[in-house]
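hey so i finaly got around to running the thing on Glucosyl-3-phosphoglycerate synthase from Rubripirellula amarantea. pasting the sequence first so u can double check i didnt mess up the copy paste, my clipboard has been acting weird all day
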Amino acid sequence: MADFAQNGIIGTLHNLRNRSTEELESELVEFSTETPMSLLLPCLYSELEGPAMGHIVEELAKIPYLNEIIIGLDRANEQQFENAKRFFQKLPQKYVVLWNDGTRLRHVDATLQAEGLSPNQLGKGRNVWYCLGYFLASGKSKAVALHDCDILTYSRAMPARLLYPLAHPSFHYQFCKGYYYRAADGKLNGRVFRLLVIPLIRALKKVLGRVEYLDYMGSFRYALSGEFSMRSDVVSSLRFPSDWGLEIGTLSEMYRNCNLNRICQVDIADSYDHKHQVLSEDNRTAGLHRMANDICKAFIRKLAVEGIDISSSMIRTLKACYYRTALDVVDHYHNDAVMSGLTLDRHQEELTVELFSRVLLAAGDEFLNRPDESPFIHNWSRVTSAIPDIYDQILGAVETDND
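ok and heres what it spat out for the 3d tokens, dont ask me to read them lol
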């Protein structure tokens, strides 16, 4: 599946099929003496009972180079937390489970709330934020990778390929984004990226002209992947949305904080399949409908931060340009699917584009009507400034829970 093109403004590290996972892992063991590495797993308790997580743990147990595995557990009562600790006992590496619904971490959260620093939305963003707080508090590693916990096609090659660019002593990357293509059961997937993000970036370029941020975002082969890695020295300054704009927000933060030569993307899988969200045409608070809305607002907010004037007329022009651009993209993906022996329902694809057009217009109106809305979680640098002993509080809560 790999090509060899470097056609963006960030580095692309392909899988040219010349090296095995075992060979990469052997080098990572060597690199780990200078760059200890951790893996972060944000999960719901229900995912421990799902079809993917058992295999993921079996693959993780074979990894020889990880210094620590940090598991963020959401929506779990006390008995389920105890079950989770037993579930992960198969791991030979050191690991901890952050019981985000437990009394001790809720007490830490209350301390943050008193200072106006606690994440204001439940979800993956909040889970990741607390896990990164623990990562910084423990100080055990210099690099951390993150991936989702519902990957049905998981392989231990994924964390190896995510961490290798950060750990190699001569590469000097600070952030690495994973990419892959989405297909399963003979169907082409990844609708939000294919039908919203790609044509939206192209439409924004047409409407706004040359904006380096858009060139940067357009360089990513799969900007919505939940798999990425970063060096510890960039974690404390990271501010990202707590909503479905997490991935776009994280990339935007890296654009703000890092030299572009320190950002790369890497091919981590031949194919990828995980839990699919419903479109939810009639419910803007659920499924791909909500995801698309949060992503559109994440783009609009970032462009405003970059000094772009966002007006109602600009949003209407953008909506029209996006719609035509997205329909052209549908043609290309239909032909791509047919030639590859995959199926793609053109009628459903165009219905999805129509929904995303309406969502884009609504997201623009929301931004204009509530320009002070800020879904961002405060970075850990600010938190430690306001509460100097917060890391000690997190370590104490997590260690007591796990003991």
